[in-house]
């Protein structure tokens, strides 16, 4: 390995000079990364990039040595590309006349040529889609998320029987205040007997429909048959929230959202302060791993990255950007980045100075120190409608820069609602959910007031 490095075959990918962070539960491993030395111009012929892992072997290697081609290399990138995906990504428009755009660095002009590109020719990138101008009214004309004081008579109630105390309180308040013609209740593996009893006493068997939470997709086609519906997202897990809200917005179905925040979320400010104070200094990247080792976060391994959409990439050769909001349950974002490669990472952190917010911000800074092209921005956690507009501005910038755009559900359930509504009206390549185990005793405690939201269409 030393010989290869000395020969310039491999180089240290130092980025900020810090090692890469890999999460293994609460513990973090630090790794230094090596990369193939870049040969400028070569990428235009075979698509080589610092994060590509071709690792050809066997018959694929023999085929590529005999006849080098983009198709063979793409098959080994590890993203599950099918033969059809690869065929769709090939730029057939250049095969007819073999014309390329060459840039003359001397006079900064471009011209067409029919000659074969040489290794160090500077090839001007071409975009298959035209840039779009930012339109602040685009979302307002299509979907709007607004807070309301109450909801009118609702035909269908969607709820989930979960283990959190706030789930029971939220359902109880809804049944005290409103009447519903029918209720569909998703059931988790761990459920509350009190919620079961409450629903059974309030509705007769003909108006109650119960199903396991993993069958939530069966409900989506039925929503159109109701005049309107209310979904209480308090106890429903994020994949179900995302899919139900996204499909309802795409079909312009009238519905409302109820949400009851927890009084206390793990990791708590008190626990973070206690663990940090042992080191006699404010929370920072140096003590981050040690603090996390003894912190009760409410989640536990294994972590599993789940894709929620069918891939919708404009081109497999385009760079991919991620948009995510980082929460104090920081293992989720680390797990996602451990297994996915991005050319740009856009992270939102909640405004504020609490210990939980400092933990999220420190985790974001660690991501920025270990990955290329990371942008960190602050976000008002309670301004959900303005978050949609912030997403739109970010989307325009990335779209016009030629990125495929992915989302990650790594924060609150209300932000999941915003991501779902946004993905229904803007083209998103993929959305990710990080599944984990739960520490039921240290996930949330208590409850606050229930809030209501309305989805409106332009």
How many helices? 15
Give the end-to-end Cα distance, rounded to a whole number of Å. Answer: 60 Å
CATH topology of the domain at 295-441: the name is Rossmann fold
- What's the shape? globular
CATH architecture of the domain at 295-441: 3-Layer(aba) Sandwich
**Side-by-side strand order of the widest sheet:** 7-21-12-11-8-9-10
Biggest beta sheet summary: 7 strands, mixed
Structural class estimated from helices and strands? alpha/beta
Rg, rounded, reads 25 Å
Low-confidence stretches: 39-53, 90-127
**DSSP E strands, number:** 21
Estimate percent helicity.
25-40%
Quote the beta fraction.
15-25%
Walk me through what this model shows.
There is one protein chain. By secondary structure, the protein is of the alpha/beta class. Among the domains are: 144-259, 3-Layer(aba) Sandwich (Rossmann fold); 295-441, Rossmann fold (3-Layer(aba) Sandwich), CATH 3.40.50.11700. Helix content is 31%, strand content 25%. The chain is built from 15 helices and 21 strands. The protein has helices at 2-6, 43-46, 58-66, 70-75, 83-89, 137-140, 165-177, 193-202, 238-250, 269-277, 288-293, 331-339, 355-370, 384-400, 413-425, and strands at residues 10-12, 20-24, 27-31, 34-36, 100-104, 109-113, 144-148, 154-161, 180-187, 208-212, 229-232, 255-259, 264-265, 299-307, 320-325, 344-350, 374-379, 404-409, 430-438, 444-445, 451-456. The strands form six sheets. The chain has a seven-stranded mixed β-sheet with strand order 7-21-12-11-8-9-10, with helices on both faces. A six-stranded mixed β-sheet has the order 14-19-18-15-16-17, sandwiched between helices. Strands 1-4 form a two-stranded antiparallel ribbon. α12 links the parallel β15 (320-325) and β16 (344-350). The longest helix has 17 residues, at 384-400. The chain is globular and about 75 Å long. The N and C termini lie far apart (60 Å).
């Amino acid at each position: 390995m030393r010989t290869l490095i000395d020969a310039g075959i491999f180089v240290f990918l130092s980025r900020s000079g810090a090692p890469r962070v890999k999460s293994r539960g609460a513990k973090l491993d630090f790794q230094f990364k090596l990369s193939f030395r870049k040969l400028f111009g070569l990428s235009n012929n075979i698509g080589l990039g610092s994060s590509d892992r071709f690792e050809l072997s066997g018959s694929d290697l023999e085929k590529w040595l005999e006849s080098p081609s983009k198709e063979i290399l793409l098959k080994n990138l590890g993203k599950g590309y099918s033969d059809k995906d690869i065929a769709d990504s090939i730029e057939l428009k250049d095969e007819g006349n073999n014309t390329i755009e060459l840039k003359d660095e001397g006079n900064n002009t471009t011209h067409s040529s029919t000659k074969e590109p040489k290794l160090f020719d500077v090839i001007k990138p071409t975009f298959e889609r035209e840039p779009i101008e930012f339109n602040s009214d685009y979302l307002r004309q299509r979907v709007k998320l607004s807070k309301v004081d109450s909801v009118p008579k609702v035909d269908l109630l969607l709820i989930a029987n979960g283990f959190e105390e706030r789930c029971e309180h939220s359902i109880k308040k809804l049944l005290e205040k409103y009447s519903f013609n029918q209720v569909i209740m998703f059931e988790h593996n761990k459920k509350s007997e009190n919620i079961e009893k409450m629903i059974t006493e309030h509705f007769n068997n003909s108006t109650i429909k119960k199903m396991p939470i993993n069958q939530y997709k069966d409900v989506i086609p039925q929503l159109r048959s109701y005049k309107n519906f209310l979904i209480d997202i308090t106890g429903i897990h994020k994949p179900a929230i995302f899919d139900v809200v996204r499909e309802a917005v795409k079909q312009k179905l009238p519905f409302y959202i109820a949400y009851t925040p927890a009084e206390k979320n793990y990791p708590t400010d008190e626990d973070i302060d206690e663990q940090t104070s042992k080191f006699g200094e404010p929370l920072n990247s140096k003590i981050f791993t040690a603090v996390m080792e003894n912190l009760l976060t409410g989640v536990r391994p294994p972590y599993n990255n789940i894709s929620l959409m069918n891939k919708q990439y404009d081109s497999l050769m385009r760079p991919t950007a991620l948009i995510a909001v980082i929460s104090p349950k920081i293992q989720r974002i680390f797990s996602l980045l451990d297994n996915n490669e991005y050319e740009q990472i856009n992270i939102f952190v909640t405004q504020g100075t609490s210990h939980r917010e400092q933990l999220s911000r420190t985790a974001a800074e660690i991501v920025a120190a270990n990955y290329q092209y990371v942008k960190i921005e602050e976000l008002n956690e309670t301004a959900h409608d303005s978050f949609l507009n912030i997403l739109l501005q970010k989307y325009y910038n990335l779209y016009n820069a030629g990125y495929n755009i992915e989302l990650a559900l790594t924060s609150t359930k209300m932000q999941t609602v915003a991501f779902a509504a946004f993905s229904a009206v803007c083209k998103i390549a993929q959305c990710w959910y990080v599944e984990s185990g739960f520490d039921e005793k240290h996930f949330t405690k208590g409850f606050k007031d229930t809030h209501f939201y309305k989805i409106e269409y332009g």
